[in-house]
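Recap from last week: sequence in, structure out.
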Amino acid sequence: MHMPESTIHREDQNIETKCLYTEPLPLMDLCRRSIRSALGRQRLRDIDSLPLPQSLKNYLQYQ
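Predicted structure tokens:
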């Protein structure tokens, strides 16, 4: 699909503006998202078998 350059530029500006005016996610949340993404949806149930403290397993499972 071809989009006019002015539309693309405007979308880029909107993204940049949103980034400037929104709070960044806390590092803990970014780490949780990264770990869950690395595990993949099919293996999220395996979090309990990871060699981690129970409190961290709970955090990864949004408990």
